[in-house]
Amino acid sequence: MQKRSFLVVVMFLIGTLFTSLYAQTHTVTGKVTDKEMGEPLIGVNVLIKGTSTGTITDFDGNYTLEASASDVLVFSYVSMKSIEEPVGNRSTINVVMSSDSEVLGEVVVTAMGIKRQSETLTYSAQTVGGKDVNDIKSVNMINSLQGKSAGLTITPNSTGAGGSSKILFRGSKSISGSNQPLIVVDGVPVMNSVSDDQVDSNYGGQRDGGDVMSTINPDDIASITLLKGASAAALYGAVAANGAIMITTKSAQSGKVAISVSSNTTMETPMILPEFQNQYGVSDSGMYSWGEKLSAEAPNYAKEFYRVGFTTNNSISLSGGGENIRSYFSYGNVYSQGITPTNDYRSHNLNSKVGFDLFEKKVHVDFSAKFTNQHIKNQAAAGYLFNPLTGVYLFPRGEDWNYYKENFEVYDPARGINVQNWTNTLQEQFGNPYWMLNRQASVVDRNRYEFGGSIKWDINEDWNIQGRMRYERGEEHWVNNLYASSAGDKYKMGRMKDNRYFSDQLYGDVLINYSHTFGDFFVTATAGSSFTKSKTSHVDMNAEGEVFTSPGSGNVYYPNIFAPGNYYKNMFVLGNNDFWNTEKRLNAVFATAQVGWKDGLFIDVSARNDWSSALSFTESCSFFYPSIGGSFLMNKFVDMGKNVDLFKFRASYSIVGNDVPVFMTNLLYHFVKDGNGAIAAPDNAPFRTLKPEKTHSIEVGFDGTFFQNRLTLGLTYYKTNTKNQFFSVAAPYQSGLRNRYVNAGNVQNQGFEISAGWYQQFNNNFSWSTNFNLSYNDNQIKELVDDLPNGLTLTDFGGAKIILKEGGEYGDLYVRHIIRNEDGTPVKDAATGKPQISGDSTEEMIYAGNMNSKVNAGWTNTFHYKDFTLSFLIDARFGGKVLSMTEATLDGWGVSKRSGDARNAGKVVVDGVEFDPKAWYTTTGSTSYNTPYANENYVYDATNVRLRELSFGYTFRNLFGIGKNLTASIIGRNLFFFYKDAPVDPDVSPGTGNGVQGIDMFGLPTSRSFGLNLKLNF
């Protein structure tokens, strides 16, 4: 008995000793690095799990702390996936952290700024990091995402720096409304533009009003989440029927002070220029080039006109914070000299964010302020008129270019002023480009102000309430004065144009959030209310006329004096659908909830109800729409082996409304042109039964990660039907009205998206990551309306129309064509020897194809070797058409290489029929902006494959001290085509409106850029 008691005591003492030894702390050290870049991470939080004990990594990514063998270390860092490591008997624990965008376990910012684990999502949502937009920068940051996401199509306008871009998720859905997604910054929708001016006509004189993307500093961006479908963006309601782009900006981290400096400098040259003939000279009084053969070859005047462009994009940010307060400040500026002379762009971007915690960190307060200034001189704009490129391309071969360049104006004694000097000054579409750049200069100044704040109260672990508000103000001043003799001497005394635009938006919301775990069940819910109040106004001062002699005879006292007092009367014109002052209010209530079971089965439901002032004077200003979705993680319930990390199926269904324009239900009176202040009644019928468009969307998909997250796969099928389309049709003659509005139609988009990625770590020094995406979209006009037997003309470019017909597709192109005999040969006019061209009525035109490519793809590769990084992006589009009015005009004016080759051959042979080259090309080509020509000959296949981006860089570590690294990269964009059929860049667009993409009409050529990107972090 005594022996047994002794043994028990001994065992107890031994156990106590071992327990004491095990619980004893020891020093743990290690280094934390970035998996993608291989760089040390500064300021990573390293905590002992379940305690507040911890530290942060230093400038070299190192940490040191005391821990016991039973502890677990938790490593966390903004935009990185948290990692847990048990200590055990280890004294060194090195950690490699992965970006959120590399793993499906990331936290995704969804609609209303609600954060969700990506595994729980019931719809497709892709997150890209700040590196995707700030390594190879574009003045409009959204262009840096071209080719990087399945289902996302971005088409920049051919207007250069400060221009807009057309953004589409999964095809065009709305006939008359916007097809662009909602832009959301830090959970709050932003105002897209100050004015909605865009080029949508082949005549010219229009402009690009810009968009919000060009005002965002790419170095401020932490991540971007692409919500492609209606289900993903349903909580934002009518303004997000086309999806949403969620931008999360950088904020300071507590306990960390950081400074980041970047400078991106590129040189730009035209990527593609037309091919010109250089053997035949001037004809027709200095207009065309159908003259005699030259004694010597003429130079390429286009190459002499363009200059090497230059763009520098600089940014600095400072951030810091203590335990309860944090702040972030950044300044960015862009200066660009375009490839056309005198085209300059400057922007300044100031951004500040301050946040602090109150009441034992239960209340979080954040404030932000931002100011952006843009100045643009001589921004390019497509079209035949007021465009220097027409003179550059059409200049008669063999004439003295340098003479007209140096002497673009000469003195006119009759008017006592200098007037335009050119080979022919009587053609509106054909002027001296240097006169246009110096005496028809356009100047745009834009200012945007943003002020916002949020307060969040963590009531307890389950409940919190949050309120947010943001006010935005945009101002734009556009001056485009034309000196006397401009536009074929149309403005004999000059023309004054001085327009000012103003936009305001106030947004506010309140959200109540709840989350709790009940055993195997997890519930999270959000309910709230929001309002958006927007206002636009503009003041136009347009004046022109003949010299004043007496009241009623003449209007201008002196030529080229651009001041209101120089005009006897202001020839101000306000169009029928042009409103100098609009106000709109959108109120909403919404709710969403998710129920999860065993972290493997999730059900989502959401609902929203909007009240829109645009529906005033109708039966109801209210419209409601719900959505539901589910996701199932098979790997949570079935043992699929160690090589399957995620095996997820998802499906969702939603209905989302799309708001309508203001004043459609109660049309306003308008001023009569030249009516001396007279007003007239509207000629359209008010739409008192107006209903919002409704998009019905279904989406199913699969997400998987395999082989320890090295392989990622994503598959999505979607189908959307947008009904209750809003457009106008001709009104009955006896009504006394020209048009009436209808709700009708059904536009369907269906397709699939594929994304795949692989990460391979060959050794400690060498790694490779590759990502591929592919999308297919099929569009069909399921229904229109019986009142449109010949379809609805969406856009008309003089013999080329985008016509929507039931059974057709959005973007169908119909064109004038050569009239042919029954055997298919061209009909030749016996008297003139010219081919015969069809008319431009819908019945006479022929179908030439669809402007949209059904298949788009992108392939990104990144290689890391020690401190070297090489990356490149190849993107492609397959199918679709592009129409070149430029090529048609070059043929008609006899300056194209084709027309020269034909003259060398002595004839043009088409299907066995011979034509004189001049008779053929002056008929089938364009000789004026309003003459008929055979558009069918200038429709090309839009299929192309290009090297979109290339970057090669090296990181100089500790160059300016411990943790102060410099990364230098040689960068290139739009370097070359692997394949292209069209003589122009197929990704061309004069504006962002519906039905104008793929139209080339003397637009600014795409720029090829090379440069250097520098980044300094300390």
Descriptive account of the structure:
The chain is mostly beta strands. The protein contains ten helices and 51 strands. The chain has a 22-stranded antiparallel beta barrel. A hairpin with a 5-residue loop joins strand 2 (45-48) and strand 3 (54-56). Helix 4 (388-394) packs antiparallel against helix 6. The radius of gyration is 32 Å and the shape is globular. Residues 1-23 and 100-105 have low confidence and may be disordered. Belongs to the TonB-dependent receptor family. This is SusC/RagA family TonB-linked outer membrane protein. Residues 1-23 form the signal peptide. Keywords: Cell outer membrane, Ion transport, Iron, Iron transport, Membrane, Signal, TonB box, Transmembrane, Transmembrane beta strand, Transport. It is found in: Cell outer membrane.
Query: What's the number of helices?
Result: 10
Question: Which residues sit in consecutive blocks of at least 5 with pLDDT less than 50?
Answer: 1-23, 100-105
Beta fraction of the residues?
over 45%
Oligomerization state of this entry? single chain
Q: Could you report the average pLDDT, rounded to the nearest whole number?
A: 88
How many beta strands in the DSSP annotation?
Answer: 51
* Largest sheet report: 22 strands, antiparallel, barrel
Outline type: globular
Estimated radius of gyration? 32 Å
Classify the helix fraction into a percent range: under 10%
For the termini, the CA-CA separation is 71 Å
Write a short abstract of this structure.
The protein is built from ten helices and 51 strands. With 1018 residues, the chain is mainly β. The strands form eleven sheets. It has a 22-stranded antiparallel β-barrel. Strands 10-15-16-13-14 form a five-stranded mixed β-sheet.
